[in-house]
UniProtKB/TrEMBL annotation:
Sequence ranges assigned to domain Glycosyl transferase family in this UniProt record: 77-263
Extent of Low complexity compositional bias: 742-756
GO biological process: cell wall organization; peptidoglycan biosynthetic process; proteolysis; regulation of cell shape
Any GO CC annotation of this UniProt entry: outer membrane-bounded periplasmic space
SUPFAM superfamilies, per the entry: beta-lactamase/transpeptidase-like (SSF56601), Lysozyme-like (SSF53955)
GO terms assigned for molecular function: penicillin binding; peptidoglycan glycosyltransferase activity; serine-type D-Ala-D-Ala carboxypeptidase activity
Record-linked Pfam families: Transgly, Transpeptidase
Organism of provenance: Psychromicrobium lacuslunae
Protein name: Glycosyl transferase
Keywords noted in UniProt: Carboxypeptidase, Cell shape, Cell wall biogenesis/degradation, Glycosyltransferase, Hydrolase, Membrane, Multifunctional enzyme, Peptidoglycan synthesis, Protease, Transferase, Transmembrane, Transmembrane helix
Biased composition (Polar residues): 723-738
Domain Penicillin-binding protein transpeptidase intervals: 365-637
Length: 762
């Protein structure tokens, strides 16, 4: 049997609402009687005891800072990109227009400067309105600020779904909110609370806080807001979606006029200004604040590189989620190493490498020897999550992982070709040998009985056309199978000389030389293995940043510096945070580095032999010392120039943008950017970009002469009688396009033959 309700005290009746009002009043007794008024009005020990209970703010108010946008800046302070979940840019109270301060107080809390955090008069008025069947809010600005802080705290803990707003709040929630508001009023001044509120509140369309709102709707700073603009924004906070000036301009105007009426009634403005403002239209000048690296003003892929560095470094938080929160909500100012002037030149060169329908990738990255600072990072493809011609999500300049196996978002699949040869040459010098030692460049057969010395592993591989599926070792053309010095072998990029020298060395020492220069595999992030002899010719996949930094080690007299991309980081309060510093250490003998640079300069300057002689990077050959090496994989799939002055090391790459080596990416008999090529090697497109960039940028950085190698490295030892060239038994005139199968240890998925001889014009 249903229980009958007493119609006299039914809560739907006026009397029932009055009873409810009295019940709430009892629950609020202490607050209404004493704590709702400013603390200075309370006297007596009982009042003091009550106030002391609120002296300490709970952690959710002291630590739950509002989410603030992070800025990534270039080295000169110019903006690269903003990162945020909520576009908020806090400003000081003195950086806010007086109109916005008055307008918000007028419409949201007219007694703000009179109450102590909770307005007893407002609560009574709201309760009476409720009894009469109406609805009127009673939350003060302080209470609203507290509520926003609580929500921010929950969102910071990924618990935003627990936040309560509006009708979802219980009486207990409201009482607790009142208590916190009173506590906050004891800790902060009215102006501090109003500034905090204006910096945290939602103004719709992704704009949080008054500075972001002023920029979003009117393209001005908060300090420049006019009366009309301020009244419009003050009206939004009550219901951001309903009073959205962009989506609902009529609603926004009506609410704006309500704000103006309140300001007039409270004598904040005069009648003349009020009437003029009411008559004014809602005139917006919207400005969208771009978010994310894809919207970067410059260097989007460098921006992504910096983002990934932070997400992968425990310096910035214990977990990836902690680091992401700091990055997107922490209001960080990240000043990077990017040189924006050099970056523009690098990007211009990349934009010129291909036409809009040429499905080839290119990238250029520069690093400063001696500091490890990454100065440029440019590529021809646009950043996009959707793969298509001319757009990609992959950063061509970096590997898939760093040495700690943190993802970098890179492609990392480019074979480096003959740019690997300087490391065999360095090992030769490190072994105490002269670069002018003459070796047999006619030797092309390394049979199955060949033993490759490797004291820290096993190296296999053979080159023998008498065996099924194999071929003799080949150079780029049929005219260089003769005895020559190790130096001329590197200068001319002669494969047979690289193998002749390596056959006398310990492959473990060659591996060690690459490791000491910071080279890691672009796919795995692990050191190279040299488990097959063909890797002498650059069959490993390595990214441009790694190659640029390896050559920087040569230029820096054998001192390796770990790449860095961040100069400084400050938090939202202006406090400097710890950032990783470049770790520099001597990893190879200075005289070995000097010997390599001596040879790399000859690569460019030796008109008769130099594999990079056509690049001509110096308009004035006497302006600065520059050494470089070209590189080309089979069929020109990946082509390179990597070179360095004493102050600027640059890697320029052109090739397959997907890592595939199939025929569509063979660069033979192709037309790129409207120009036909019989074949493309390192000196062509990558070389042109490298040359143009270095001509413009290198003089702005240190460009000292490289030290001379010791005389012992330059001595000409006894030369044996010339050795007759050994022809290819299968095809005496073949070039280096045939590739032994991967099963015999000679080849790899790139099909690399170590080309790089660029003396032939296409």
């Amino acid at each position: 049997m249903a229980v009958r309700k007493n119609p006299i005290i039914n809560t739907a009746t006026t009397l029932g609402k009055l009873v409810g009002f009295l019940a709430v009043s009892v629950l609020c007794g202490v607050l209404v009687a004493g704590l709702m008024v400013p603390a200075v009005a309370l006297t007596g020990s009982a009042a003091s005891t009550s106030i002391d209970a609120f002296d300490k703010l709970p952690g959710e108010l002291t630590s739950a800072d509002a989410a603030v946008a992070t800025k990534i800046l270039a080295s000169d302070g110019s903006l690269i990109a903003n990162l945020y979940t909520q576009n908020r840019q806090p400003v000081g109270f003195d950086q806010m227009s007086p109109f916005i301060k008055n307008a918000v107080v007028a419409i949201e809390d007219s007694r703000f400067y009179e109450h102590g955090g909770v307005d007893a008069t407002g609560i009574m008025r709201a309760l009476v309105s409720t009894v009469q069947g109406g609805r009127q809010g009673a939350s003060t600005i302080t209470q609203q600020y507290v509520n926003n802080k609580i929500i921010q705290g929950l969102e910071a803990q990924n618990k935003g779904d627990l936040a309560k707003i509006g009708a979802a709040k219980t009486v207990a929630d409201k009482l607790r909110e009142m208590k916190l508001a009173i506590a906050l009023e004891k800790q902060q001044s009215k102006d501090q609370i109003l500034a905090g509120y204006l910096n945290i509140v939602n103004f719709a369309n992704g704009a949080y806080g008054i500075q972001a709102a002023a920029q979003r709707y009117f393209s001005v700073d908060a300090s420049k807001l006019t009366l009309v603009q301020a009244a419009t924004l003050a009206g939004v906070v009550n219901s951001p979606s309903f009073y959205d000036p962009i989506a609902h301009p009529d609603n926004a105007k009506d609410r704006r006029n309500d704000v103006l009426d309140k300001m007039l009634a409270q004598k904040m403005i005069n009648k003349k200004d009020h009437d003029a403002a009411v008559a004014a239209p809602v005139t917006l000048k919207p400005k969208v604040q771009p978010q994310g690296c894809a919207t970067a003003a410059v260097a989007p892929f460098f921006c992504e590189y910096v983002k990934n560095l932070i997400l992968g470094d425990a310096t910035f938080g214990k977990t990836v989620d902690d680091r992401a929160q700091a990055l997107y909500q922490g209001g960080l100012t990240i000043k990077t190493t990017l040189d924006p002037k050099a970056q523009k030149i690098a990007q211009d060169q990349q934009n010129n490498t291909t036409g809009p329908n040429d499905n080839r990738g290119s990238a250029m990255v520069s690093i400063e020897p001696g500091t490890g600072k990454v100065l440029t990072m440019a590529q021809n493809f646009k950043m996009s999550a959707v793969a298509a011609v001319g757009q990609t999500s992959y950063n061509f300049s970096v590997g898939k992982f760093d040495a700690d196996h943190n993802p970098l978002g890179g492609l990392g699949t480019m074979g480096v070709g003959s740019t690997m040869k300087p490391f065999t040459f360095a090992s030769w010098l490190d072994d105490g040998r002269s670069m002018n030692t003459v070796l047999n460049g006619a030797k092309r057969v390394y049979g199955t009985d060949t033993v490759w010395r490797n004291s820290c592993g096993t190296t296999t591989g053979y080159f023998d056309s008498s065996l099924p599926g194999s071929d003799d070792l080949q150079n780029d053309d049929p005219n260089h199978y003769y005895s020559m010095s190790v130096l001329n072998g590197l200068v001319g990029s002669i494969n047979t000389i690289t193998f002749a020298s390596a056959s006398q060395l310990d492959f473990c020492k060659i591996k060690q030389m690459t490791t000491e220069a910071g080279i890691i595999d672009g796919v795995t992030g692990k050191p190279l293995t040299f488990d097959t002899a063909s890797k002498l010719l650059g069959s490993d996949s390595i990214d441009p940043l790694t190659m640029a930094n390896a050559f920087a080690t040569f230029a820096n007299k054998g001192v390796y510096c770990k790449p860095i991309a961040i100069n400084s980081i400050t938090d939202s309060q202006g406090k400097q945070l710890q950032v990783p510093q470049s770790e520099c250490k001597q990893t190879m003998k200075p005289e070995v580095a000097a010997g390599v640079m001596y040879a790399l300069q000859r690569v460019l300057s030796d008109k008769a032999r130099g594999s990079g002689a056509l690049i001509q990077p110096n308009v004035n050959q006497d302006s600065y010392n520059l050494g470089a090496k070209t590189g080309t994989t089979n069929f020109g799939v990946d082509t390179w120039v990597v070179g360095t002055t004493s102050g600027l090391a640059t890697a320029s790459w052109f090739g397959s943008p997907t890592g595939e080596i199939d025929k569509p990416f063979h660069n033979q008999n192709v037309t790129i950017n409207g120009r036909p090529y019989a074949q493309i090697d390192g000196a062509n497109i990558a070389g042109t970009a490298f040359s143009n960039f270095m001509n413009e940028v290198a003089p702005s950085y240190k460009h000292e002469d490289f030290p001379q190698p010791p005389s012992s490295m330059l001595e000409e030892p006894y030369v044996a009688p010339p050795v007759t060239q050994t022809p290819n038994r299968n095809n005496p005139t073949s070039s280096s396009k045939a590739t032994p199968p991967a099963t015999n240890g000679n080849a790899n998925t790139k099909g690399n033959n170590g080309n790089g001889d660029s003396k032939k014009k296409p």
